[in-house]
Design goal:
CATH architecture of the largest domain: Alpha-Beta Barrel
Shape: globular
Number of strands: 17
Bound molecules: pyridoxal-5'-phosphate
Number of domains: 2
Structural class: alpha/beta
Distance between the termini: 51 Å
Largest sheet: 9 strands, mixed
CATH superfamily of the largest domain: Alanine racemase
Length: 412
């Protein structure tokens, strides 16, 4: 299996702050996903909630089958810019949006039997009226959390999760109405976050043990996202075998919704140091950057246990081992919010940081770019593609830059 190639990015050629996607690395991930598809016949839909830079759908759609969306806006984007294979899941649908959802989505997945019952007549009416094919699915929840390193924050099956039908509810619904599954083409489960093939095997066993007897007669089973399929050490051949066996055993097509893995390690958030502040009551220095953790990387504030790898720096989590006068920094954002800083981790650099130095947050695209805001009026980082030109030279191609009007329009 081809290993992830080295980055060719020259940060000197990037005006900060910027989200920079490296085309070669993006294609590397996509080639891996396409290989899995080609070997198994499974279908893969790009999860737009993870990364939705639509000008680059012209690349991703060459490798993947369609999009996975969770809102009407995402559905429109998938339909308009990717293709007509738009697969939607939302925890609940709004009546006033549902007809539009039917227009854009080829598959609609429901989170409960009550939602399915409520919207089933609208689906039938739409299909009759338009002659278009629409498939419906049901999200299931096997109550499997596996190794949950983030205290339930990212586990869709943690106790109290609103996502998916549990087996007890499932059986009750079928008891009340034995025809409750009529019209349901497939089941969907999304139970992983950044997990290995071993975790998939374990999680899938929990799904099959609870719901396997209901798979007969379905067209597809959707495994969701959260698998680290594009990591160098992921057991790709193991996955291929598992998917093939699963499809044969239940006579279904496996669907997957990769998100993070599409852009994993395929881009960075480039920022610059604006100032360095030293305080005698802490052992580290504070580097103020021309970006904002609140506005540009909100997941890292929500979950301080997520590592933020920075090029050329070592992450230190234990403040007590930081040596005074070392080049250890707390990275802080440029807004005036007290908490706009990376909590729970410090970065040890080889050399002291000074104003103007570039700080490259690796794997900086997934979930950051889609969640970016212009909070505090902070400049939204540019979106840049790093690519090889016709003469074989690498350089930046600006995809989008943001200005005062973008900020103003969002405020009123
Ligand atoms: C329903 C669904 N599918 C797919 C994904 C993509 O997951 P990931 O980006 O971890 O691959 C998510 C992420 O939350 C999701 O909720």
């Amino acid at each position: 299996m081809k290993k992830r190639p080295a980055s060719t990015l020259d940060p000197k050629k990037i005006k900060s702050a910027a989200f920079v996607i490296e085309e070669d690395l993006l294609r590397h991930n996509l080639e891996r996903l396409k290989y899995i598809k080609d070997q198994t016949g499974c279908k893969m839909f790009q999860a737009l909630k993870t990364w939705a830079t639509w000008p680059l759908f012209s690349i991703t759609k060459k490798y993947l089958d369609g999009t996975e969306v969770s809102s009407l806006n995402e559905a429109k984007l998938g339909y308009e810019k990717f293709n007509r294979s738009v697969h939607m899941f939302a925890p609940a649908y709004k009546e006033e949006e549902f007809n539009e959802i039917l227009k854009y989505c080829s598959t609609i997945i429901f989170n409960s039997f009550s939602q399915w019952k409520k919207f089933k007549p609208a689906v039938s009416k739409f299909v009759k009226k338009t002659g278009l094919k629409r498939e419906c699915g049901l999200r299931i929840n096997p109550e499997y959390t596996g190794k949950d390193e983030h205290s339930g924050l990212w586990s869709p099956c943690a106790p109290g999760s609103r996502l998916g039908v549990r087996i007890s509810e499932f059986k009750e619904a079928l008891k009340a109405d034995p025809k409750a599954l009529d019209g349901i083409s497939g089941f969907h489960f999304h139970i992983f976050f950044d997990k290995t093939f071993e975790d998939l095997k374990e999680g899938l066993k929990a799904v099959e043990d609870k719901f396997g007897e209901y798979f007969a007669g379905r067209k597809w089973i959707n495994f969701g996202g959260g698998q680290k399929m594009t990591d160098d050490d992921y057991d790709v051949e193991g996955l291929i075998k598992l998917v093939k066996n699963f499809q044969q055993k239940y006579n279904v097509t496996v669907h997957m919704e990769p998100g993070a893995v599409i852009v994993k390690c395929a881009g960075v958030l480039v920022s610059s140091v604006l100032d360095v502040v030293e305080r005698d009551d802490v052992p580290y220095k504070i580097a103020i950057l021309d970006m904002s953790f609140n506005a540009h990387t909100p997941d890292f504030l929500l979950s301080t246990d997520l590592d933020m790898p920075v090029t050329g720096a070592v992450i230190i989590r234990d403040e007590s081992i930081i040596k005074k006068n070392s080049n250890t920094y707390q990275l802080a954002g440029g807004t005036c919010v007290t908490g706009d800083k990376l909590l729970g981790q410090y970065h040890l650099f080889k050399n002291p940081l000074k104003a103007g130095d570039k700080v490259l947050m690796e794997d900086g695209i997934q979930y950051n770019l889609v969640q970016c805001t212009m909070f505090n009026g902070v400049q939204h980082p540019d979106i840049v593609l790093w690519k090889k030109n016709s003469k074989g030279k690498y350089g930046p191609k600006l995809i989008r830059t943001f200005n005062y009007q973008d900020f103003k329009k969002r405020m009123g």
